[in-house]
Amino acid sequence: MLDCRSVDDLCAAIVGLAVRGAPALGAAGAMGVALAAATGEPLDDAARRLKATRPTAANLAWGVERALAASDPAEEAVRIAADDVARNRRLGAHGAELLPEEARVLTHCNAGSLACVGYGTAIGVVRAAHESGRRPSVWVDETRPVLQGGRLTAWELQRLGIPFTLVADVMAGSLMAGGEVDAVVVGADRIAANGDVANKIGTYPLAVLARHHDLPFYVAAPLSTFDPECPDGSQIPIERRDADEVAVIGGHRLAPMGVQVENRAFDVTPHELVTAYVTEEGVAATAVAALDAAASA
Ligand code: MRU
After folding, report:
1. Pocket test for ligand 1, best of 14, 20, 53, 242 (most atoms within 8 A of CB)
2. CATH code, 267
C-alpha cells in the first residue's frame, strides 16, 4: 500500500510503475486532480504534470480531464474508480462468450485487477470465463523488460485459482505452432480511431504470430482507452523508459556498462491484425463499431 499525499508523490508513483496499467492510470489521474484540489495546488499545473508522467495510456489524460471538468473532482474521481470495476465486469462477461470451453489463452503484460481499479480487462475476460465454469487456462508471458506478467499476472491468477503457466515471451511462436493456444487476449493503452492498438512492447509480434497460426487476437479495453482524436497508430506517443530496465535484472547488471539500449514501453498493433475489440458495451469488429455501440447504448 502506498499513500500519496501530494501530486508530486503521485507523479513519482506513476513514473516508478507503482501505479500502472491504463485503467488504473485513469483513476489515478482523476485522484491526482482531486488531491491537488484538496491540498490547494493549482489544478492546471497539477493536470499538466500528471499527464506528462506517462504519455501512451489514453486513460490517464482522460481521467485528469474528467476530474478537471467536474464541479467536485473528488466525487468524480471516486465515481471513475467505482465505475471501472463495473465496466470491467461487463467487459469480461462479453469477452468470455468468445472463448471455447477449456480455452488456452495467451496473454501479455498485466491487464488484471492490478492494472485497473479491480477485476481486470484481458484477465477480466478470463475471470468471467472461469466464473461461468468454462475452465480456461492461461499462458502468461513474463513480459520483459520489467516482467509485469511474471510478477503481477502470475500473482493474480494464483490468488484467483485460475490455472496458468508462466512462459518466456520468446516461447509464444512455439506454443502456437504446437497447437497449444486457442486465443490471444490482451489489454490496450490507447486505441486510435482506425483501431490500431498501443499496448505493452511485445504485443505486436503476438498479433503477427496469431495471424500466421490462424488464431483470434482479441483486444479487451474499456471505452476510456479509445482515442477518437488520434487518427492512427503512427500518431500514438510511445513512451521511452530508462535503459537500466533492460540492462539490469533484479538488481544485477547483465549487459556491459555503457551499452546503448532502446527501451520502448509500448508497440502498435495494426488494426488489420485485431480479430475483435471487447468493451463494456460488447464485442465489435472495428474501433468505429465499438464507439458506435457506446454512442447508441
Ligand atoms: O507499462 P505498463 O505496465 O503500464 O503497461 C501496461 C499495459 O501495457 C497493459 O497491457 C495495458 O495498460 C492494459 S491494462 C488493463
Report:
1. 20
2. 3.40.50.10470
* Model pTM score: 0.97
Mean pLDDT of 129-150: 98
- Can you give the C-alpha Rg of the chain in angstroms? 18
Name the closest-CA residue to atom 10, ligand 1.
187
Report residues whose beta carbon is within 6 angstroms of any ligand 1 atom.
Answer: 20-23, 57, 109, 111, 115-116, 121, 148, 187-189, 199-200, 265
Tell me whether residue 159 is in a domain: yes
Judge whether 2 lies within some domain.
no
- One-character DSSP codes across 100-153: PTT-EEEE-S--SGGGSSSS-SHHHHHHHHHHTT---EEEEE--TTTTHIIIII
Same domain, 142 and 252: yes
How many C-beta neighbours within 10 Å does residue 59 have?
Answer: 31
Tell me the average pLDDT across 8-24.
97
Together in a domain, 18 and 105 = no
The pLDDT score that the predictor gives to residue 285 is 97
Q: Taking Cα atoms as reference points, which of 225, 227, 234 lies closest to residue 192?
A: 227
Known active-site residue 189: yes
Between the CA of residue 237 and those of 68, 123, 181, 219, 240, what are the distances in Å?
Answer: 22, 25, 31, 19, 10
CB atoms within 10 A of CB 260: 7
Alpha-carbon torsion 152, 200, 237, 229, what sign? Answer: negative
Q: At what angle do helices 73-96 and 122-131 cross, to 10 degrees?
A: 60
Q: Is the pLDDT of residue 250 over 90?
A: no
Find cell 539500449 and name the residue: 261
Question: What's the total number of domains in the chain?
Answer: 2
